[in-house]
Amino acid sequence: MSNERIGVLVMSYGTPESLDGVEEYYTHIRRGNPPTPELLDELKGRYEAVVGGVFPLRENTNNQVAALQKTLDAAAPGRYVCYQGLKHARPYIEDGVEAMAKDGITKAIGIVLAPHYSMMSVGGYIKRAKEKAGELGVAMSFVESYHLHPKLIEALVDRVVGKLGEFDRSQPIKVLFSAHSLPERIREMGDPYEKQLLETSEAVANKAGVADWSFTWQSAGRTHEPWLGPDILDTLKELADQGMKQVLSAPVGFVSDHLEVLYDLDIEAKAVSADLDIHFERIDMLNTDAFYMEALAESVVDKDEWKA
Protein backbone atom coordinates (compact mmCIF):
# COMPACT_ATOMS: atom_id res chain seq x y z
CA MET A 1 0.00 0.00 0.00
CA SER A 2 1.40 3.45 -0.89
CA ASN A 3 2.26 5.96 1.86
CA GLU A 4 0.07 8.69 0.36
CA ARG A 5 -2.69 9.96 2.65
CA ILE A 6 -6.20 9.47 1.29
CA GLY A 7 -8.97 11.81 2.39
CA VAL A 8 -12.30 10.31 3.46
CA LEU A 9 -15.23 12.69 3.12
CA VAL A 10 -17.91 11.45 5.53
CA MET A 11 -21.20 13.01 4.47
CA SER A 12 -24.54 13.24 6.22
CA TYR A 13 -27.71 15.33 6.22
CA GLY A 14 -26.66 17.62 9.04
CA THR A 15 -28.48 19.10 11.99
CA PRO A 16 -28.33 22.51 13.70
CA GLU A 17 -25.78 23.01 16.48
CA SER A 18 -28.38 24.62 18.74
CA LEU A 19 -31.99 25.78 18.74
CA ASP A 20 -30.73 29.21 17.63
CA GLY A 21 -29.55 27.63 14.35
CA VAL A 22 -32.86 25.98 13.42
CA GLU A 23 -34.07 28.85 11.20
CA GLU A 24 -30.85 28.99 9.14
CA TYR A 25 -30.90 25.19 8.83
CA TYR A 26 -34.54 25.09 7.73
CA THR A 27 -33.94 27.93 5.25
CA HIS A 28 -31.08 25.94 3.68
CA ILE A 29 -33.30 22.85 3.34
CA ARG A 30 -35.88 25.07 1.61
CA ARG A 31 -33.26 26.25 -0.94
CA GLY A 32 -32.91 29.71 0.57
CA ASN A 33 -36.62 30.30 1.23
CA PRO A 34 -37.18 31.10 4.93
CA PRO A 35 -39.90 29.01 6.60
CA THR A 36 -43.15 30.64 7.65
CA PRO A 37 -43.34 31.46 11.38
CA GLU A 38 -45.79 28.54 11.77
CA LEU A 39 -43.43 26.04 10.14
CA LEU A 40 -40.47 27.35 12.14
CA ASP A 41 -42.40 27.10 15.42
CA GLU A 42 -43.44 23.55 14.57
CA LEU A 43 -39.87 22.42 13.80
CA LYS A 44 -38.49 24.15 16.89
CA GLY A 45 -41.21 22.46 18.93
CA ARG A 46 -40.08 19.06 17.65
CA TYR A 47 -36.48 19.76 18.58
CA GLU A 48 -37.51 21.05 22.00
CA ALA A 49 -39.60 17.93 22.60
CA VAL A 50 -36.60 15.76 21.77
CA VAL A 51 -33.65 17.65 23.18
CA GLY A 52 -35.27 19.62 26.00
CA GLY A 53 -32.89 22.55 25.75
CA VAL A 54 -29.78 20.39 25.38
CA PHE A 55 -28.65 19.72 21.82
CA PRO A 56 -26.81 16.38 21.47
CA LEU A 57 -27.88 15.58 17.91
CA ARG A 58 -24.80 17.11 16.25
CA GLU A 59 -22.57 15.00 18.49
CA ASN A 60 -23.92 11.80 16.93
CA THR A 61 -22.33 12.61 13.57
CA ASN A 62 -19.13 13.93 15.18
CA ASN A 63 -18.83 10.69 17.15
CA GLN A 64 -19.46 8.56 14.06
CA VAL A 65 -16.73 10.36 12.10
CA ALA A 66 -14.29 9.98 15.01
CA ALA A 67 -15.13 6.29 15.40
CA LEU A 68 -14.68 5.68 11.67
CA GLN A 69 -11.27 7.40 11.83
CA LYS A 70 -10.27 5.09 14.69
CA THR A 71 -11.47 2.02 12.78
CA LEU A 72 -9.60 3.05 9.62
CA ASP A 73 -6.44 3.75 11.67
CA ALA A 74 -6.60 0.20 13.03
CA ALA A 75 -7.05 -1.24 9.52
CA ALA A 76 -4.42 0.90 7.77
CA PRO A 77 -2.43 3.17 10.13
CA GLY A 78 -1.76 6.62 8.68
CA ARG A 79 -3.47 5.91 5.36
CA TYR A 80 -6.85 7.64 5.74
CA VAL A 81 -7.86 11.03 7.10
CA CYS A 82 -11.57 11.67 7.74
CA TYR A 83 -13.31 14.96 7.05
CA GLN A 84 -16.94 15.84 7.62
CA GLY A 85 -19.28 17.32 5.01
CA LEU A 86 -22.95 18.06 5.74
CA LYS A 87 -25.77 18.66 3.28
CA HIS A 88 -27.66 21.33 5.20
CA ALA A 89 -25.36 22.58 7.98
CA ARG A 90 -21.77 23.63 8.55
CA PRO A 91 -19.31 22.25 7.70
CA TYR A 92 -21.06 21.88 4.34
CA ILE A 93 -19.99 19.20 1.85
CA GLU A 94 -18.00 21.83 -0.04
CA ASP A 95 -16.28 22.88 3.21
CA GLY A 96 -15.12 19.30 3.78
CA VAL A 97 -13.62 19.04 0.30
CA GLU A 98 -11.94 22.42 0.75
CA ALA A 99 -10.44 21.35 4.09
CA MET A 100 -8.94 18.28 2.41
CA ALA A 101 -7.45 20.35 -0.39
CA LYS A 102 -5.96 22.83 2.12
CA ASP A 103 -4.29 19.92 3.90
CA GLY A 104 -2.64 18.90 0.64
CA ILE A 105 -4.81 15.89 -0.05
CA THR A 106 -5.22 15.16 -3.76
CA LYS A 107 -7.06 11.83 -3.63
CA ALA A 108 -10.18 11.08 -1.62
CA ILE A 109 -13.10 8.72 -1.12
CA GLY A 110 -16.61 9.89 -0.27
CA ILE A 111 -19.09 7.90 1.80
CA VAL A 112 -22.53 8.88 3.14
CA LEU A 113 -23.91 7.91 6.55
CA ALA A 114 -26.88 6.32 4.76
CA PRO A 115 -26.60 2.75 3.44
CA HIS A 116 -29.13 3.04 0.60
CA TYR A 117 -28.62 4.91 -2.66
CA SER A 118 -31.11 7.29 -4.19
CA MET A 119 -30.44 9.85 -6.88
CA MET A 120 -32.38 12.31 -4.72
CA SER A 121 -30.36 11.71 -1.54
CA VAL A 122 -26.91 10.10 -1.79
CA GLY A 123 -26.70 11.10 -5.46
CA GLY A 124 -27.08 14.74 -4.46
CA TYR A 125 -24.28 14.51 -1.90
CA ILE A 126 -21.97 12.95 -4.46
CA LYS A 127 -22.80 15.59 -7.10
CA ARG A 128 -21.88 18.43 -4.76
CA ALA A 129 -18.65 16.76 -3.60
CA LYS A 130 -17.63 15.97 -7.20
CA GLU A 131 -18.17 19.54 -8.33
CA LYS A 132 -16.06 21.01 -5.52
CA ALA A 133 -13.37 18.35 -5.89
CA GLY A 134 -13.17 19.13 -9.62
CA GLU A 135 -12.67 22.82 -8.86
CA LEU A 136 -9.87 22.10 -6.40
CA GLY A 137 -8.10 19.30 -8.28
CA VAL A 138 -8.97 16.53 -5.81
CA ALA A 139 -9.53 13.11 -7.43
CA MET A 140 -12.53 11.47 -5.75
CA SER A 141 -14.25 8.11 -5.87
CA PHE A 142 -17.44 7.31 -3.99
CA VAL A 143 -19.10 4.48 -2.07
CA GLU A 144 -22.63 4.71 -3.46
CA SER A 145 -24.28 2.16 -1.17
CA TYR A 146 -23.45 -0.58 1.31
CA HIS A 147 -26.95 -1.78 2.10
CA LEU A 148 -26.06 -5.50 2.10
CA HIS A 149 -22.64 -5.30 3.74
CA PRO A 150 -22.52 -8.38 6.02
CA LYS A 151 -21.45 -6.35 9.07
CA LEU A 152 -24.26 -3.82 8.58
CA ILE A 153 -26.75 -6.70 8.42
CA GLU A 154 -25.17 -8.32 11.49
CA ALA A 155 -25.44 -5.07 13.49
CA LEU A 156 -29.11 -4.69 12.58
CA VAL A 157 -29.87 -8.34 13.32
CA ASP A 158 -28.33 -7.96 16.80
CA ARG A 159 -30.65 -5.04 17.48
CA VAL A 160 -33.79 -6.74 16.20
CA VAL A 161 -33.14 -9.94 18.12
CA GLY A 162 -32.23 -8.04 21.29
CA LYS A 163 -35.35 -5.87 21.24
CA LEU A 164 -37.70 -8.78 20.47
CA GLY A 165 -36.81 -10.03 23.95
CA GLU A 166 -38.85 -7.15 25.41
CA PHE A 167 -42.10 -8.51 23.98
CA ASP A 168 -44.44 -11.31 24.98
CA ARG A 169 -43.12 -13.96 22.59
CA SER A 170 -46.24 -16.10 23.08
CA GLN A 171 -48.23 -13.46 21.16
CA PRO A 172 -47.78 -12.24 17.57
CA ILE A 173 -45.21 -9.48 16.96
CA LYS A 174 -45.06 -7.48 13.75
CA VAL A 175 -41.66 -6.08 12.77
CA LEU A 176 -42.01 -2.85 10.78
CA PHE A 177 -38.94 -1.86 8.79
CA SER A 178 -38.96 1.77 7.72
CA ALA A 179 -37.00 4.57 6.06
CA HIS A 180 -37.41 8.21 5.12
CA SER A 181 -40.01 8.58 2.38
CA LEU A 182 -39.10 10.23 -0.92
CA PRO A 183 -41.33 11.59 -3.69
CA GLU A 184 -43.11 8.84 -5.63
CA ARG A 185 -41.52 9.96 -8.90
CA ILE A 186 -38.32 8.11 -7.96
CA ARG A 187 -40.11 4.95 -9.13
CA GLU A 188 -40.47 6.34 -12.66
CA MET A 189 -36.78 7.29 -12.58
CA GLY A 190 -35.76 3.68 -11.95
CA ASP A 191 -34.20 4.74 -8.66
CA PRO A 192 -32.78 1.78 -6.61
CA TYR A 193 -33.70 3.25 -3.19
CA GLU A 194 -36.88 1.24 -2.55
CA LYS A 195 -35.39 -2.02 -3.86
CA GLN A 196 -32.26 -1.65 -1.70
CA LEU A 197 -34.36 -0.97 1.41
CA LEU A 198 -36.44 -4.09 0.79
CA GLU A 199 -33.24 -6.12 0.27
CA THR A 200 -31.82 -4.92 3.60
CA SER A 201 -35.11 -5.61 5.39
CA GLU A 202 -35.38 -9.11 3.94
CA ALA A 203 -31.76 -9.94 4.79
CA VAL A 204 -32.21 -8.77 8.40
CA ALA A 205 -35.56 -10.55 8.81
CA ASN A 206 -34.20 -13.83 7.43
CA LYS A 207 -31.11 -13.80 9.64
CA ALA A 208 -33.10 -12.71 12.72
CA GLY A 209 -35.68 -15.46 12.16
CA VAL A 210 -38.51 -12.95 11.71
CA ALA A 211 -41.36 -14.27 9.57
CA ASP A 212 -43.98 -11.57 10.21
CA TRP A 213 -42.62 -8.28 8.87
CA SER A 214 -43.47 -5.55 6.44
CA PHE A 215 -41.97 -2.35 5.12
CA THR A 216 -43.45 1.10 5.66
CA TRP A 217 -42.41 4.72 5.22
CA GLN A 218 -42.02 7.68 7.52
CA SER A 219 -41.09 11.37 7.77
CA ALA A 220 -42.46 12.39 4.34
CA GLY A 221 -41.80 15.97 3.29
CA ARG A 222 -44.54 18.56 2.99
CA THR A 223 -44.72 19.29 -0.70
CA HIS A 224 -47.54 19.23 -3.21
CA GLU A 225 -46.36 16.04 -4.94
CA PRO A 226 -47.18 12.52 -3.65
CA TRP A 227 -44.58 10.76 -1.47
CA LEU A 228 -43.98 7.05 -1.01
CA GLY A 229 -46.39 5.40 1.40
CA PRO A 230 -48.04 4.08 3.41
CA ASP A 231 -46.81 6.16 6.33
CA ILE A 232 -46.01 4.28 9.53
CA LEU A 233 -48.87 6.01 11.39
CA ASP A 234 -51.36 4.68 8.83
CA THR A 235 -49.72 1.24 8.96
CA LEU A 236 -50.11 1.17 12.74
CA LYS A 237 -53.84 1.90 12.38
CA GLU A 238 -54.18 -0.91 9.84
CA LEU A 239 -52.38 -3.32 12.15
CA ALA A 240 -54.65 -2.35 15.04
CA ASP A 241 -57.68 -3.05 12.85
CA GLN A 242 -56.20 -6.51 12.20
CA GLY A 243 -55.89 -7.12 15.95
CA MET A 244 -52.09 -6.77 16.19
CA LYS A 245 -51.00 -5.78 19.70
CA GLN A 246 -47.20 -5.79 19.43
CA VAL A 247 -45.00 -3.87 16.98
CA LEU A 248 -41.24 -3.58 16.75
CA SER A 249 -40.03 -0.60 14.73
CA ALA A 250 -36.78 -1.15 12.80
CA PRO A 251 -35.89 2.09 10.97
CA VAL A 252 -33.16 0.54 8.80
CA GLY A 253 -32.92 3.62 6.60
CA PHE A 254 -31.39 5.60 9.48
CA VAL A 255 -28.06 5.07 11.21
CA SER A 256 -28.18 7.40 14.22
CA ASP A 257 -30.45 9.02 16.77
CA HIS A 258 -31.89 12.16 15.23
CA LEU A 259 -35.22 13.92 14.77
CA GLU A 260 -36.84 11.39 12.41
CA VAL A 261 -36.20 8.69 14.99
CA LEU A 262 -36.44 10.53 18.31
CA TYR A 263 -39.57 12.50 17.38
CA ASP A 264 -41.33 10.77 14.47
CA LEU A 265 -41.02 7.31 16.05
CA ASP A 266 -40.33 7.70 19.77
CA ILE A 267 -42.92 10.44 20.33
CA GLU A 268 -45.39 10.47 17.43
CA ALA A 269 -45.61 6.77 16.50
CA LYS A 270 -45.44 5.73 20.15
CA ALA A 271 -48.35 8.05 21.02
CA VAL A 272 -50.46 6.69 18.14
CA SER A 273 -49.61 3.13 19.24
CA ALA A 274 -50.66 3.85 22.82
CA ASP A 275 -54.02 5.17 21.57
CA LEU A 276 -54.40 1.96 19.53
CA ASP A 277 -53.46 -0.25 22.52
CA ILE A 278 -50.31 -1.48 20.72
CA HIS A 279 -47.08 -2.26 22.58
CA PHE A 280 -44.55 -0.35 20.45
CA GLU A 281 -40.77 -0.55 20.74
CA ARG A 282 -37.94 0.62 18.51
CA ILE A 283 -34.56 -0.99 17.89
CA ASP A 284 -31.51 0.91 19.13
CA MET A 285 -29.82 2.94 16.42
CA LEU A 286 -26.40 2.00 15.04
CA ASN A 287 -24.58 5.22 16.01
CA THR A 288 -20.95 4.12 16.62
CA ASP A 289 -21.63 0.36 16.72
CA ALA A 290 -18.36 -1.49 16.02
CA PHE A 291 -19.90 -3.65 13.25
CA TYR A 292 -21.30 -0.55 11.55
CA MET A 293 -17.97 1.26 11.76
CA GLU A 294 -16.25 -1.80 10.27
CA ALA A 295 -18.82 -1.91 7.45
CA LEU A 296 -18.04 1.73 6.65
CA ALA A 297 -14.27 1.25 6.94
CA GLU A 298 -14.25 -1.85 4.75
CA SER A 299 -16.40 -0.08 2.15
CA VAL A 300 -13.88 2.79 2.08
CA VAL A 301 -10.86 0.49 1.79
CA ASP A 302 -12.55 -1.49 -0.99
CA LYS A 303 -13.05 1.77 -2.90
CA ASP A 304 -9.39 2.82 -2.53
CA GLU A 305 -8.23 2.57 -6.13
CA TRP A 306 -4.82 4.04 -5.24
CA LYS A 307 -3.62 1.12 -3.13
CA ALA A 308 -0.22 -0.07 -4.33
TrEMBL record:
<dbReference type="GO" id="GO:0004325">
    <property type="term" value="F:ferrochelatase activity"/>
</dbReference>
<keyword id="KW-0408">Iron</keyword>
<dbReference type="InterPro" id="IPR019772">
    <property type="entry name" value="Ferrochelatase_AS"/>
</dbReference>
<comment type="similarity">
    <text>Belongs to the ferrochelatase family.</text>
</comment>
<feature type="binding site">
    <location>
        <position position="30"/>
    </location>
    <ligand>
        <name>Fe-coproporphyrin III</name>
    </ligand>
</feature>
<dbReference type="InterPro" id="IPR033659">
    <property type="entry name" value="Ferrochelatase_N"/>
</dbReference>
<feature type="binding site">
    <location>
        <position position="260"/>
    </location>
    <ligand>
        <name>Fe(2+)</name>
    </ligand>
</feature>
<dbReference type="InterPro" id="IPR001015">
    <property type="entry name" value="Ferrochelatase"/>
</dbReference>
<keyword id="KW-0350">Heme biosynthesis</keyword>
<comment type="pathway">
    <text>Porphyrin-containing compound metabolism; protoheme biosynthesis.</text>
</comment>
<feature type="binding site">
    <location>
        <begin position="46"/>
        <end position="47"/>
    </location>
    <ligand>
        <name>Fe-coproporphyrin III</name>
    </ligand>
</feature>
<dbReference type="GO" id="GO:0006783">
    <property type="term" value="P:heme biosynthetic process"/>
</dbReference>
<dbReference type="Pfam" id="PF00762">
    <property type="entry name" value="Ferrochelatase"/>
</dbReference>
<keyword id="KW-0627">Porphyrin biosynthesis</keyword>
<comment type="function">
    <text>Involved in coproporphyrin-dependent heme b biosynthesis. Catalyzes the insertion of ferrous iron into coproporphyrin III to form Fe-coproporphyrin III.</text>
</comment>
<feature type="binding site">
    <location>
        <position position="180"/>
    </location>
    <ligand>
        <name>Fe(2+)</name>
    </ligand>
</feature>
<keyword id="KW-0963">Cytoplasm</keyword>
<keyword id="KW-0479">Metal-binding</keyword>
<dbReference type="InterPro" id="IPR033644">
    <property type="entry name" value="Ferrochelatase_C"/>
</dbReference>
<dbReference type="GO" id="GO:0005737">
    <property type="term" value="C:cytoplasm"/>
</dbReference>
<dbReference type="GO" id="GO:0046872">
    <property type="term" value="F:metal ion binding"/>
</dbReference>
<keyword id="KW-0456">Lyase</keyword>
<feature type="binding site">
    <location>
        <position position="125"/>
    </location>
    <ligand>
        <name>Fe-coproporphyrin III</name>
    </ligand>
</feature>
<feature type="binding site" description="axial binding residue">
    <location>
        <position position="13"/>
    </location>
    <ligand>
        <name>Fe-coproporphyrin III</name>
    </ligand>
</feature>
<protein>
    <recommendedName>
        <fullName>Coproporphyrin III ferrochelatase</fullName>
        <ecNumber>4.99.1.9</ecNumber>
    </recommendedName>
</protein>
